[in-house]
Amino acid sequence: SYIQSAETTLHPGPPPKPAQARLALWPGLDVPKGLVQPIIVSSDEQCGDATPEHWCVFASMIVGNAKQEMGKRVALAGDQSLVMKFVYNTTLKGYHQSLFIPPNPQPVSILNIASGPSTSFYTATECQSKHAGTVNAHTYTETTIVLSEPDPNWGKTPTYSFMGCADSATTDDGGKTWKIGTIHM
User: Fold this and answer.
1) I need a surface site. Which of 44, 84, 164, 173 has the fewest CB within 10 A?
2) Based on the structure, what is the number of domains in the chain?
3) Among 42, 31, 33, which residue's Cα sits nearest to residue 66?
4) Higher pLDDT, 107 or 165
5) What is the dihedral angle through the alpha carbons of 42, 44, 48, 54, rounded to the nearest 10 degrees?
6) What residue numbers bound the domain in which 103 lies?
7) How confident is residue 125, by pLDDT bands cut at 50, 70 and 90?
8) Is residue 33's pLDDT more than 70?
9) Which domain of life, per UniProt (predicted)?
10) 3-state secondary structure of 54
């Protein structure tokens, strides 16, 4: 089975001060054609309407190993949250990715690319270029993953690395829907 839909809410906390190139937070879905990964970035480089005191967020997919496709780039304050939704479209053969900043019900960034399906969901904190220093703690909450077919073993083997930890993945419907309360990074 593959991931039919996924949703998670990031609470990023304040971006690093001073801003440096570049710190990226992201959840990801490995796909046959690359990596579906909305980006939450802090940088001293221009990114949409974000200032160095804000995060810059956008829907994104790494195609192959080099090309990055991006949706609209918008600012996110450290005390705001970001809801990220992924829905597999069988006609497109890829994920419809949409990002929301509550309480606004309209997406702030979207991306639709033929990617193929994913069987994995994970989060990462990525220091790029000259970024050095401390990364503030951040959390993902209310993570829900719905599989195309029930798999009672899907969420039983989590992988943790680099000081991340998460609540156990649970299912109430035999492995079709998996929920993770909080992921701490």
Assistant:
1) 173
2) 1
3) 33
4) 107
5) 50
6) 3-184
7) confident
8) yes
9) Eukaryota
10) coil
What helix, strand, coil percent values describe the chain, rounded to 5?
Answer: 0, 50, 50
Burial of 165 per CB tally in 10 Å (0-12, 13-18, 19+): exposed
Among candidate residues 26, 42, 36, the one with its CA nearest the CA of residue 5 = 36
124 neighbors 147 (Cβ within 8 angstroms): no
Q: Please report the pLDDT score of residue 159 as a whole number.
A: 60
The answer to whether residue 146 scores a pLDDT higher than 90 is yes
Q: How far apart are the first and last CA of the chain?
A: 28
Q: Which of 140, 141, 139, 143 is nearest to 155 (CA)?
A: 143
Buried b (16+ CB within 10 A) or exposed e, 115-140: bbbbeebbbebeeeeebeeebbebbb
- Strand runs labelled E in the chain: 3-11, 23-31, 34-36, 39-42, 55-58, 60-63, 67-70, 74-76, 82-89, 94-100, 109-114, 122-127, 139-147, 165-166, 177-184
178 to 8, 86, 99, 154, 167: CA distances (angstroms)? 12, 14, 20, 8, 12
Q: Specify the pTM.
A: 0.92
CATH at 157:
2.60.120
The pLDDT value given to residue 123: 87
